[in-house]
Amino acid sequence: MKTLEHDSVSTPRRPLRWLVAALIGVLAVAAALAVGEFVSVFTGAGSSPFLAVGNSAIDLTPEWLKQFAIRNFGTNDKLVLLAGMAVTILVAAVVAGLLSRRSPLPGMVIAAAFGALAVLAVLTRPDTDVLSVLAPLASLVVGVLVFRWLHGVAVDRLAAGSSEKDGLTRRRFLYSAAGTAVGAGVLGGAGTLLTGSSDIEASRAAIGKLTVRSPAPPIPASAGYEALGATKFITDNREFYRIDTALTLPRLTAEDWRLKIHGLVDNEVTFDFADIRGRELIEKTITMTCVSNEVGGPYISTSNFIGVPLRDLLNEAGVQDVGGQVFATSVDGWTTATPVRDMLDEKRGALLAIGMNGEALPLEHGFPARVIVPGLYGYASACKWVVDLELIRYCQKSFYWQDRDWAVEAPIKTQSRIDVPAGFATVAAGKVQVAGVAWAQTTGIAKVEIRMDGGPWQTAELATEVNDRTWRQWRAEVDLSSGSHRVEVRATDRSGKTQPQERVPPIPDGATGWHSILFSVD
Ligand SMILES: Nc1nc2c(c(=O)[nH]1)N[C@H]1C(S)=C(S)[C@@H](COP(=O)(O)O)O[C@H]1N2
Ligand SMILES: [Mo]
Predict the structure, then answer these.
(1) Is there a domain that residue 12 lies in?
(2) Do 27 and 150 touch, CB atoms closer than 8 A?
(3) Residues 5-26, buried b or exposed e (16+ Cβ, 10 A)?
(4) What gap in Å lies between CA 236 and CA 76, rounded to an integer?
(5) Which residues of 77-104 are buried (b: 16+ CB within 10 A; e: fewer)?
(6) Which of 10, 199, 379, 498 is the most buried (most CB within 10 A)?
(7) Is the same domain home to 42 and 130?
């Protein structure tokens, strides 16, 4: 590090001021991140050092922490992770600066270590290639060099001695620091702008309205109790729950999308978007549910899904082992597996979906195409951004959540939820309306009961059934005196099974227990 010894023999080495040292760390890291972000515009979204580290963090997060995040931050869990990463990086940058008050070496080593971490993260992403490594490498090099350079400028200033020279070098440091900040801002901003999802949005917009050969029957008004303030039967696309491990949305246009079906099949087939769209599209009203949904939780929504029967696509490939699994892979590397039997079952009606409520799939729900298998939890069936279906024998491969101790197979458990009144609401005395949803996809709901304050069960009125793949709404009326009350609900499905009272957590194959709400009557 000879070249860095700016102090002359006559000027004794003085450490940099705390603030200057910290600023050098922060600026070097900002420059590194900005350059990495900018280079990743050209080397692919997966190569962004910041996001690659974030995505790896998601995959490496222990199960309990992931559950905690989903429970506490819900769909904001990714935002919380990104903010946490930003804070960690900021702290590391400040520490790197402060450790380098005398020599730039500690900061350079820390910058290099962070760069190496990003290189590793990018290399281990499933959606990156060798070229992708250029982005984190650029970050590493820029981080180390900018740190060393700014440090040199600052030390020069200290070593200057005469006040005239001092002023000159102080100005030089300020210019260098400001230049670095502006440069990082411009490059980082340009990188973020250029990696926007506008090309994907344009590809989606170009699809326009999907023409469906056999539309889903209209939802009768009697299927819900919207007038009571109950949940809407069909969830708006923007309200549909979203669960996935993708920190940023995959950037796959309809034009570039391909679905390959291979493995234990007679002939490998590949479909493109025009192939799928050109088929007779069907529309089915289906309620999807996430296995992570706690009793009474929000991760359940209903949509009119548009697509083609997966059964047809699989039969075109020629399934060799109906006792095996269909192993699905998303363009972002996420995987799942579903029993072949369930995918082929005509009554269940698994779809390769390309639309939701008349529109092309929204980006966050799997554009251009995804799998929907009624009656199975999403993690074990509903692959978004699906690009590959491989027919395999059991135990040949394991999928994303299976590797994290969730069940290999996961039919949706019969459940019910109270939506009206809201928890801890205060309602007027007299006849009180209680309403909610119950679901037992592909089995159907036979009965819903409620009870007040631990009293006798009372049968609720069921709304018109839309089909056995959707939730069923219910309502009941109770006469209540003023004071606080507790209402509980339980559903019985058409197989005759009543929801067990015992509370079990979502892991490994879905929560059980009765939902209850506390509220008061005026
Ligand atoms: N590629 C990909 N597909 C995925 C997931 C994911 O993380 N990545 N999550 C699954 C889970 S756990 C669920 S519950 C559903 C949720 O679909 P939605 O976000 O459209 O509601 O998608 C499934 N498909
Ligand atoms: Mo899920």
Answers:
(1) no
(2) yes
(3) ebeeeeeeeeebeeebbbbbbb
(4) 19
(5) bbeebbeebeeebeebbbebbbbbbebb
(6) 379
(7) yes
Same domain, 399 and 461: no
From the CA of 187, how far away is ligand 1's center (Å)? 33
Helix (H), strand (E) at residue 52: helix 49-60
Q: What are φ and ψ of residue 70, in 5° steps?
A: -65, -40
CB distance 348 to ligand 1 below 6 Å: no
As a whole number of angstroms, the distance between CA 97 and CA 110 comes to: 9
Give the residue numbers spanning the domain of 35: 18-198
Residue 224 token pair: 């819900």
Does 274 fall in a domain? yes
Task: Give one DSSP letter per residue of 199-238, joined into a string.
Answer: HHHHHHHTT-SPP-SBPPPPPPGGG--GGGTPPPSSPPTT
Q: With a 6 A CB cut-off, is 66 part of the ligand 1 pocket?
A: no
Q: What pLDDT sits at residue 188?
A: 87
Write down the pLDDT at residue 74: 65
Q: What is the CATH number of the domain that holds 306?
A: 3.90.420.10
Residues 384 and 499 in one domain: no
Whether residues 364 and 456 fall in one domain: no
Domain count, the chain: 3
Measure 110 CA to ligand 1 centroid, in angstroms. 36
- Summarize pLDDT for 258-317 with one digit per residue, the tens: 999 999 999 999 999 999 999 999 999 999 999 999 999 999 999 999 999 999 999 999
Beta-carbon contacts of residue 91 (< 8 Å; ≥ 6 apart): none
Cα–Cα distance for residue pair 44/31, rounded to 1 Å: 20
Q: pTM for the full model?
A: 0.83
Average pLDDT over residues 18-22: 93
Residues 74 and 142 in one domain: yes
Tally DSSP H helices, then E strands, for the chain: 11, 19
Residues 426 and 399 in one domain: no
Q: Which of 182-191, 293-302, 374-383, 456-465 has the lowest mean pLDDT?
A: 182-191
- The protein residue whose alpha carbon is closest to atom 21 in ligand 1 is 242
Distance CA(240)–CA(243), nearest Å, equals 10
Q: How far is the CA of 379 from the centre of ligand 1 (A)?
A: 6
CA atoms 19, 21, 22, 24: torsion sign: positive
Structure tokens at 480: 């209540």
Any atom of ligand 1 within 6 Å of the Cβ of 290: yes
Q: Which two tokens stand for residue 460?
A: 């609720």
Q: What are phi and psi of 429, to 5 degrees?
A: -65, 160
Q: With respect to residue 216, please indicate whether it lies within any of the assigned structural domains.
A: no
Q: Is the CB of 342 under 6 A from ligand 1?
A: no
Round to whole Å and give the CA distance between 99 and 97: 5
